[in-house]
Amino acid sequence: MSYPIASSLLDGIVLAVVERESTYGYRITQDVQKVLEISESTLYPVLRRLQKDGCLTTYDEAFAGRNRRYYKITDHGRAQLRQHRIDWQNYRNGIDAIFFGG
Amino acid sequence: MNRSEYMAALRRALSVLPEEERASALRYYEEYFDDAGPENERRVIEDLGAPETVAGQILADYRELTTVPRQGAAASGAPAAPRRGWRGINPWLLLLLVVLAIPIGVPLAGAFIGVCAAVLGVLAAVLLSVLAFVVVIPLCLLAAGIVLCGISFVLWGAPANALVTLGCGLMLFALGVLVSLLAIKLCTLFVPPVFRAFVALLRWPFDKLRSRNQGGGVQ
């Protein structure tokens, strides 16, 4: 069974993935697809939005004779991610209490 | 569909986006194909789904961030309904209002016209009677004086009677001349202003309407 993923949760997941190391679109998609059933087209709008909100920046690095665009988390993005972690903790505790008894 | 066809279709579907946004999205998917490698090209195309769907996601997200021209809706399949602003009144609605107003409006208009006609009639009667008095009284006095003078010539058999009648006739004639002069003086003094006031009264509703229209035009 899979649950529909709220866009704010997806934001948090992408921020957490990029926080571990600066990375590129294909890798981020692969990493998220390991745990969530998302289409390959899901993440571009998320990355673009996080970039516009100032949570992520991009830089280009040469790779195999071409430029690859990397995403890097900003201080603002880290602050957002902290809030996502707190929100998720609260959410999970609430669901756990119902599922498994508090 | 191969990679280049897929990217061409995506470019077309994103044509409503600003150049910078479209270039960013296209670059992302070009790199995506590069990073997936040629051996995964078919799988990536299958997993991404129709280029129009991918573009629809990008457009929907972009529209959330900014105000995008409404023609973006055409790309995602929803026809943009033409917005009818309330600038000016719908002519059909106006017609309906006019039709509905007839039962109330016609008697009201009739009453209004009747009142106006009555007021004008009274004014005209007053003016005419004043004119009549001004004209008729001096004329009567003059006529009476002339008649009495004429009668006095017949009465010379009794000279005293004739003299009294002649005197009265001359007096009435003189009074008639005086009243006539007075009436002429009064007319020259009062007729033009009264006439002007009458014209002004008739023009008043039209001036009112015109000034209101001009006031509305200034806004």
From TrEMBL, chain A:
Residues 14-82 form the Transcription regulator PadR N-terminal domain. It holds the Pfam family PadR. Coiled coil: none annotated. InterPro entries: Metal_resp_DNA-bind_regulator, Tscrpt_reg_PadR_N, WH-like_DNA-bd_sf, WH_DNA-bd_sf. It comes from the Bacteria. This is Helix-turn-helix transcriptional regulator. It comes from Agathobaculum faecis.
UniProtKB/TrEMBL annotation, chain B:
Pfam families: HAAS (PF22564). The chain crosses the membrane at residues 92-125, 131-156, 163-184. Keywords: Membrane, Transmembrane, Transmembrane helix. It comes from the Bacteria. This is DUF1700 domain-containing protein. It comes from Agathobaculum faecis.
